[in-house]
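fyi for ur records
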Amino acid sequence: MPVVKVFRVKATAGRPRRDAALLAFVLLVVQKMTNNPNFATPGSYVTALAAAVAAYQAAMLAVGTTKDVTDARTAAKQGVVDALNHVTDYVNSVVEKLASDQGQAVIESAGLRAKKRSAYAKPPLQVKYGGLSGVVQIIALAAAKSATYYFEYSVDEKNWVACPNVLKCKTTLSGLTVGTTYYFRFHAQTNKGLTVLSNVVSFVVR
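which gave:
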């Protein structure tokens, strides 16, 4: 089955390297993530990041007043980086369910940077020539390991004809009128229930 190119947006911390800039960046993330309506349960992640920042600030102050604290400062900085990575992962878990443009806005509302990446995905439904005149093959994206597929076709997108139910995600139809545009769709019954109807795909029968 051919794939289609889609774009996914992903949050990236893009954290500064210098101490002062890193602190300013992370404090901004804490501020923007606090009471942000785009995130339902950010509490533990934001709390951990704020605590890591406080520990890092304390370690930086200790460097100027106490000897032999370099290792503690390094560990505290790593704690900030780790906590920031956890926040970024949490934001991405929210964004992956959203459309690209909406996801970008949500990422930026958290004070993080959004990066677009191209990806490839199989189309939910494909129709192709079946090798003989008036024959087509309909291929659906698998709904589950075990499912019953209900394929339908129409010539006007108003009156739909049900195909025989099948346990595989593809079926073959014959006896169609050559030169006519047919419309196809499907849904499937899985152990979680009946899926929504797929998008409609048109195909001129050969």
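The CA atoms of residues 14 and 103 lie 17 Å apart. thats all i got for now
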